């Protein structure tokens, strides 16, 4: 498990560097193609959308400062989560899986006491 975490850290760092290179490439393309190129407009629309959402929620506006880190690290999270879940299918100690065994005897011996309930009527054969 420690080896997996170490490899995940290495892959995340490499992918973060790739995303920084992509960001620099986008900035160079914006400088070369101009502000009205389709890729430039898409970049600015997404950036403005996040900024407007942050300004409409002033209590969370400080989260905008983490936007660059979010841009760099979120793709690696999606990649590593898939890898981690596929390689740890046999490990059931993590996640939301229930580890309790169902006791059939206690389930079958469970009796409902409806004598105090006014909402239920008993039918006789």
Automatic annotation (TrEMBL):
InterPro entries: Chitin_synth. It is found in: Membrane. Its main location: membrane. One of its GO terms (cellular component) is cell periphery. Keywords: Membrane, Transmembrane, Transmembrane helix. One of its GO terms (molecular function) is chitin synthase activity. It is a multi-pass membrane protein. GO terms for biological process: chitin biosynthetic process. Coiled coil: none annotated. The keyword Transcription regulation does not apply. The chain crosses the membrane at residues 6-28, 35-56, 68-87. PANTHER family: CHITIN SYNTHASE. This is Chitin synthase 1. It comes from Trachymyrmex cornetzi.
């Amino acid at each position: 498990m420690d080896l997996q975490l170490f490899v995940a850290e290495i892959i995340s760092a490499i992918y973060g560097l790739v995303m920084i290179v992509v960001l620099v490439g986008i900035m160079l393309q914006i400088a070369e193609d101009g502000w009205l190129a389709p890729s430039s407009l898409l970049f600015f629309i997404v950036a403005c959308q996040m900024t407007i959402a942050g300004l409409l929620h002033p209590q969370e506006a400080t989260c905008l400062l983490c936007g660059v880190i979010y841009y760099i690290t979120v793709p690696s999270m999606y990649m590593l989560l898939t890898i981690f879940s596929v390689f740890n299918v046999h490990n059931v100690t993590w996640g939301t899986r229930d580890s309790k065994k169902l006791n059939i005897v206690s389930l079958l011996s469970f009796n409902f006491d409806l004598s105090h309930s006014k909402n239920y009527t008993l039918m006789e054969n």
